[in-house]
Amino acid sequence: MSVDPNNPIPIYQQITDYIRRSIAAGVYRPGEMIPSLRVLALELTVNPNTVQRAFETLEREGLIHPRKGLGMFVTRHGATSAQSQSRTAVYETFVQGIRAGYDANMTTRRIRGVFEQAARDVATEVRSAK
Amino acid sequence: MSVDPNNPIPIYQQITDYIRRSIAAGVYRPGEMIPSLRVLALELTVNPNTVQRAFETLEREGLIHPRKGLGMFVTRHGATSAQSQSRTAVYETFVQGIRAGYDANMTTRRIRGVFEQAARDVATEVRSAK
Amino acid sequence: MSVDPNNPIPIYQQITDYIRRSIAAGVYRPGEMIPSLRVLALELTVNPNTVQRAFETLEREGLIHPRKGLGMFVTRHGATSAQSQSRTAVYETFVQGIRAGYDANMTTRRIRGVFEQAARDVATEVRSAK
Amino acid sequence: MSVDPNNPIPIYQQITDYIRRSIAAGVYRPGEMIPSLRVLALELTVNPNTVQRAFETLEREGLIHPRKGLGMFVTRHGATSAQSQSRTAVYETFVQGIRAGYDANMTTRRIRGVFEQAARDVATEVRSAK
DNA sequence: GTGGTCTAGACCACA
DNA sequence: GTGGTCTAGACCACG
Question: What is the H or E stretch that residue C64 is in?
Fold first, then answer.
């Protein structure tokens, strides 16, 4: 994973989203520890304060909790919460794209066509990344 | 249309996108004038300078051009350019959503299901707005 | 002749320069009348006020003077004044270009090379326009 | 360097040109940081927003890019791009001067004479500035 | 009335 | 400290 500094979405939120999706995907399971602040900051070449802010958000959402001197751990309901949140995020993104399509006077059919093309493109991209 | 100041996407860019989609949709046709700086600023309750910045971008993209003392007019190729640009924007949004879905370990089928639900929801929302 | 509305130089000044050069070139000779405000405004598709402002400048410079009910006439010394002024304008333009060249760390030789190329290009352009 | 508010060329563009030439001249090299917004604004006694606008243009041209929280840095190809752009600008200035000369009925020889005088004058001016 | 430029001053994210 | 966005209000050229 990497962070896009040119993306208008704040970096801390990009990180928040990334960790949330990782929890949803089972990369980090309930009871397990997620990578430490410093490790993430180094990996993403980002200021530790920024990672810290992402941790705060996830803690407020109840996905992770701190154990003193150890690190941040995924909560019991973390996985299921993260999954529904991720699904909602995807849903919202699609809604936004579909609305933009209608605004530009595209037909429902044409919008679906664009989606299918995007799906094909991402699928091949994912496959080739393996 | 209205602007969302809490949206991380800068206001001037929201306005740019909005006008671009309007041109793509044929609301403003080649050779026609688009609403003036001050009118748009009042409608969107935004500072005129912010609208000005949107105009700059659209002019750089070749969608509109100024006629001194008169206003900004849609260029000859403005409509077709705006359409292809809008399509690309929708595509990119979908790609982003699909990637997020895969990252959260959703199957292609499940992602498509979310899309279809979003499509249905937006369609009814659009219909009821009429 | 035509006016470039995108040129940062004000239109009234573009017109002033143009008339001054025409007088210098002998298109309009001392004692002769220059085209009327309305004619020029129509030809250049410019607001009459803008032409008016150019006339004021030229009158202040002593190149032309009004004869009531007739129009603007080139003064006795108009031709020679216009010639020296035009020469100065060309000189100043060159100075500006040469300074920009030095600022960009170009050698005198290289700058002269650019000038010679420009001279060739304009010469062929002028020849083909005949 | 200083800015001329009476120059019809907008201040932000004067600043853009100045920085572009500095990059072309190797004052700021690829990978290096250029002076900050606030520093430039103080030096030129200009509003920071005006400098910001110059930065925007240079970024769009691909000469510089921002590093969050650090400053603006010259891109890899910044120097070569700036050099060719500066050369073109000098060329355009000369073309403009030569055209004005022909319009004023000057001979090619006479125009070249004016150029040579300008070259001598600027050369001595530069030499004495050392 | 139109767009274009500029200043002053504010708040934000990031290092 | 850095750049990025936004507001408020001013002046200008042009029609």
Answer: strand C64-67
